Amino acid sequence: MVSRPAETFTLLSPRHRLLAGLTLALSNFMVVLDLTIANVSVPHIAGNLGISADQGTWIITSYAVAEAICVPLTGWLAQRFGAVRLFTFGMLGFGLFSLLCGLSMTLGMIVVCRIGQGLCGGPLMPMSQTLLMRIFPPEQRGRVMGLWAMTTLLGPALGPIVGGYISDNWSWHWIFFINLPIAALCVFAAMVLLPPVETDRMKLPIDYIGLALLIFWIGCLQIMLDIGRDHDWFGDPLIVALAVLAAIGFCVFLIWELTEEHPIVDLRVFRHIGFTSGVFTLALCFGAYFAGIVVIPQWLQISMGYTAAWAGLATAFTAMTAMLVAPIVGRLVSKVDVRLMISTGVAWIGLMTLWRAHWTTDADFWTISLPQLAQGFGMPLFMIPLTTLTLGSVRPEETASAAGMQNFLRTLAIAISTSIVLTGWGNGQRVWRNEVVGTLHGDATMADLASRGFTQEQARQTVGNLVDAQSQVVSMNHVFFIAALVLFLAAAVVWLAPRPTGNVDRSAAH
């Protein structure tokens, strides 16, 4: 084990720090962009490979499962191999599997390569955060967290725009090929710039049973969430079996990891009320926030006639205002109670979500975009101070495990939220369609349309389209209303945490 000075930032010149910081920010942007860039391209990929749309969802599922499994292992991997080495090989593997994804000609090959992408990409987001904190001195870390938050917000917002444009104008293969020059640049820069801030390595025993249990229960849960909507949820024995296996696996995993001397995932960090309330707030907020990320682009394309690129653009305004506010929030973190900042930011996002709950089918582009634009002011207030709260609530030696668990719960919350929101939206559409049909004066409406020159079939189709459009928007508004209530709850939960005291050592935040 190599001993290194605690203040690693002293080993780098200001120019060296700037170049390294830009490299890490670019790598984080690439990884978070890939979370959403493939989503709008699934129909193109499915059509090109000659598979059904349901089979095409495995392209998304395989990546999500692999990433969800790998993220909580990041702390252990960084201690075992070193943060810089883990980052470099993760980026190299991500680039290689991106190339193979783009070259794939069968469903089996692209699924296997997406699993490789998820396994390599999972540690990159927390590792970029870790290394940024090690590169910059304490007085600059608030602003650095602002930069990191900006890339984290911008990537998912631009994903649908970039993915939609590439799929419509080039070929779906290029949504993977565009990663190659970025990955190559980041690997080269990491090898040149980051060795001075490498972390110590320890030969840790491998908890094989804990690892197997982790893979088992997360895999069962993620697959259940992804295919549940297409299999009528618990009306299908397969979904019931997956739910039972996930629950049993989770319980056995908890027991094993809490009693294992060298657990692969340290669950003991949950004994700190500050950490627990912070990550619970994180899970609630990200789950509710992603209700809009999931529903709005689909509604715009299905009901409002938007292209994939324009639907992505309408949702991207959040990132634009967030980028303006993030540097300011970074400077305020050390001066203002972080609980107040988080609570204010989450409540603001809740108000913007409540604003959306009054949309109609007459909404124009700016009616849809303005709540997104205003929401961006609250996002940095939530994301940046939360790291200070959660990591400031655990012991310094537990920071790596706490940060890994925080990233894992965010990923899990997004997966669960996506399934719940899409199911609730679909069920709501059926309920409200029946309600709307029950209030229509069918004969009078058909007669009126006939008098305007519509044939009976055209009149029936017109009425059906209007009913579908209204049921979709009303159901979506109810989803937003529930999401707003969840956000207001999250804004209150954060006050269960005691105020962090002293400086937070985020340099170990794997």
Automatic annotation (TrEMBL):
State whether keyword Plastid applies: no
Q: Which family does it belong to?
A: Belongs to the major facilitator superfamily. EmrB family.
Entry annotated with the keyword Transmembrane helix: yes
Q: Name one Pfam family in it.
A: MFS_1
Q: How does it sit in the membrane?
A: Multi-pass membrane protein
Q: Which Gene3D superfamilies match?
A: Multidrug resistance protein D
- Enumerate the transmembrane spans: 18-38, 58-77, 89-109, 115-133, 145-166, 172-194, 206-225, 237-258, 279-300, 306-326, 338-357, 377-395, 407-426, 478-497
Return the protein name: MFS transporter
Report the residue ranges that make up the Major facilitator superfamily (MFS) profile domain in this protein. 20-502
Chief location bin: membrane
Instruction: Cite the entry's keywords alphabetically.
Output: Cell membrane, Membrane, Transmembrane, Transmembrane helix, Transport
Organism domain of life: Bacteria
CDD domains, per this entry?
Answer: MFS_LmrB_MDR_like (cd17503)
Instruction: Quote the subcellular location field of this record.
Output: Cell membrane
